[in-house]
Amino acid sequence: MFIVNVEAAIYDNGKWLIIERSKKEEHAGGLLSLVGGKVDDEGNSFDILERTVKREIMEEVGVTVKEDLQYVHSTSFVTDSGDKVVDIVFLATYESGEAYAKSPDEVGEVFWFTTEEVANHTNSPVYLKESIKKAVSML
């Protein structure tokens, strides 16, 4: 069985909304990341991935994105505790709100970084750089 996780590469005026994961997080604590989270079991449901990513964005950083999410790519990985995860990344366009670490147990800091800043940051894992690279190609 896999945990399903969704993330958003949120873009606005040449920059990406990037979070530093809380150091309290079991997986990848302290590393830079896209905003997102786990998909909850809703039984029979439509647009569950899209609704989940929008909900996670609001819960974690307090902003909204425009309706037109675009699929970027999917990956799989195993967490430090051995959980198997399928991760789906969407490209999203910022709409409104002031981004802040609304959920401090999950988000340590919030940044608006250029593509170059993400690529060169010492806390940017390879998978974040790859997601941004693929999202840039879709702009």
Give descriptors for this structure.
alpha+beta, Nucleoside Triphosphate Pyrophosphohydrolase
In short:
This protein has helices spanning 48-61, 115-120, 126-136, and strands spanning 3-12, 15-21, 32-33, 35-38, 64-65, 70-78, 84-96, 107-113.
**Superfamily at the CATH H level?**
Nucleoside Triphosphate Pyrophosphohydrolase
Q: Could you say how many structural domains there are in total? A: 1
- Share in β-strands: 35-45%
Average pLDDT rating: 94
Task: Assign an overall shape.
Answer: globular
Give start-end ranges of low-pLDDT stretches. none
> What is the level-2 CATH architecture name?
Alpha-Beta Complex
**Number of helices, counting only DSSP H or I runs of 4 residues or more:** 3
Give an overview in words.
It is built from 3 helices and 8 strands; from the N terminus they run ββββαββββαα. It has 139 residues and is an alpha+beta fold. It has a single domain, classed as Nucleoside Triphosphate Pyrophosphohydrolase (Alpha-Beta Complex). β6 and β7 form a beta hairpin. The protein is globular. The model has no long low-confidence stretch (mean pLDDT 94).
Topology summary:
Elements: E1 3-12, E2 15-21, E3 32-33, E4 35-38, H1 48-61, E5 64-65, E6 70-78, E7 84-96, E8 107-113, H2 115-120, H3 126-136
Parallel strand pairs: 1-7
Antiparallel strand pairs: 1-2, 1-4, 2-3, 2-8, 5-7, 6-7
